[in-house]
TrEMBL record:
Protein name: Condensation domain-containing protein
Species this protein is from: Hibiscus trionum (Flower of an hour)
Superkingdom of this protein's organism: Eukaryota
Length: 475
């Protein structure tokens, strides 16, 4: 999505101006959406391996120029630029047991890793009051947990420099570097040299072109449809907001059944997750309300493989695009039927390159909403009910995890500015599905969102069991 007057190929002596999508993230992060956080729970004392951790981070900065860049803001021109420093500079912030206790106090039945993740999601170095003429895009912290020999290592990044693919590669490369005994033994493929261009400058020729009439019609359609979308009930639309998280976990057996159901219907997991979200949200409405409702679903897809030239997952930055679909729910829908319908609608849009041709339109509308919150219901800045990723991250424990003492990890991005009501970050880890569900608080309460994801889980597990029962009947 291009922002008028923004062209990332305009270079500084050691960097470039941000592209249109990146510019939108610079605007969104100021309001609280797009603070990406990776939090790793480790049983190995980082103090013992601090030189290795710091060295690994510096090697990542050397190999991925965007990580050793700073965002420069020009207030007179209202523009942002990545300016790359010649050498790595990241410093690791330490939190001792006492300080960590203060962060964790007052909340029960939530793990320390979960609470530290939420804490970091709401540490905004890029607000309008704190944004100086130059600001880092990555910060590192280590938290010592009270009463146990465990620590949480956290990386917090600006979304303009980090989409989900970047976050996944970053974590894997960091763990690999830390696990190497002899640092010369292993090379990791990275994009050395200059920062890669923005997504808009790498699109295949002609795919994003529209006539002025077509662009106007599409933007009007998106605008009108957004006013008709149904939202979850807002608990408190006036108080200042922050990001909270609910974790949705499945065991390996249930995960296998759900994935089997997806495979049998030729769909991806994103279709089932989104369908479960819509069914659960609709069932949460008043029992006396039997009217059909229209809901918005955003599916995020990684564009690296279709760019010119194609990029790998080791090219750090933001290279996702979004497809917005609307679906009418009457009540009583079956999970697999709705999931198939929703996934088909998404793939139909994608096959027509709507994720590329509508990029500028959605970016423009996102900017207008940020500038005029009153255009959204209750000034909530909600763009849709739920967002999902087209492809699920698949991860397996390995010797590197053991060497570094990894016990658990969580990763997601903040969403209390402009965003959906619930953003789902899904990972299949050692065969079990783990979903980090992000939402704005107190616009939605923790109890409300916990009930929603519990309903989603029941819907998905029941649907998975029905797949097995149906297969048994056939056999």
């Amino acid at each position: 999505m291009s922002t008028p007057g923004v062209n990332s190929q305009m270079l500084h002596s050691n960097g470039r101006v941000v592209g249109g999508t990146e510019h939108n993230w610079c605007r969104a992060v100021v309001g609280g959406t797009g603070i990406a956080v990776l939090a790793v729970l480790s049983s190995v004392n980082p103090d013992m391996h601090m030189p290795r951790l710091k060295n690994a981070l510096h090697k990542l900065q050397n190999s991925h120029p965007i990580l050793r860049s700073r965002l420069h803001y020009n207030p007179s021109a209202n523009t942002y630029s990545f300016v790359t420093t010649p050498s790595p500079f990241i410093q690791i912030k330490h939190f001792n047991h006492s300080t960590t206790c203060q962060i964790l106090q007052g909340t029960q039945n939530i793990s320390p890793l979960h609470l530290i993740l939420e804490h970091e999601l709401n540490q905004n170095a890029w607000t309008s009051t704190s944004f100086s003429t130059k600001t880092d895009v990555v910060f590192a912290s280590v938290y010592a947990l009270p009463g146990a020999s465990r620590w949480v290592v956290v990386l917090r990044l600006h979304a303009a420099a980090c989409d989900r693919t970047t976050a996944v590669s970053l974590l894997r490369e960091l763990l690999a570097l830390m696990a190497i005994e002899d640092e010369g033994e292993k090379e990791i493929t990275m994009n050395e040299g200059e920062i890669s261009l923005a997504i808009e400058d790498l699109l295949p020729k002609g795919v994003a072109k529209k006539t002025l009439w077509a662009r106007g019609v599409d933007m009007l359609t998106y605008s009108v449809n957004s006013l008709r979308l149904t939202n979850l009930k807002f608990k408190d639309a006036k108080s200042p907001r922050s990001t909270q998280v609910v974790r949705l976990l499945f065991n390996a057996d249930d995960t296998h059944k759900i994935l089997s159901g997806c495979k049998a219907r030729g769909i991806k997991l994103c279709g089932a997750l989104a369908a479960a979200g819509l069914i659960a949200a609709h069932s949460s409405k008043s029992r006396s309300d039997h009217q059909q409702k229209k809901y918005g679903v955003v599916t995020l897809t990684d564009c690296r493989s279709i760019l010119e030239p194609p990029l790998s997952g080791h090219h750090f930055g933001f290279y996702h695009s979004a497809i917005l679909n609307t679906h009418t729910i009457k009540g009583g829908e079956k999970l697999w039927e709705l999931a198939k319908k929703m996934y088909t609608a998404f793939t139909s849009y994608k096959s027509c390159n709507r994720h590329l041709s509508d990029m500028a339109d959605l970016n423009f509308l996102m900017c207008r909403a940020m500038e005029n919150p009153g255009l959204t219901p209750s000034s909530s800045l909600r763009t849709c009910l739920i967002s999902v990723f087209e492809d699920t991250v698949v991860d397996e424990s390995n010797d590197q995890h053991k060497q570094v003492g990894v016990e658990d990890y969580m990763g997601c991005a903040s969403a209390h500015g402009i965003a959906p009501s619930i953003a789902v970050f899904d990972t299949i880890r050692d065969g079990a599905l783990d979903c980090i569900c992000v939402y704005p608080w107190p616009l939605h309460s923790r109890e409300q969102m916990q009930e929603l994801v519990d309903n989603m889980k029941c819907i998905l597990v029941d649907a998975g069991n029905n797949v097995v029962d149906h297969e048994n009947q056939i056999s």
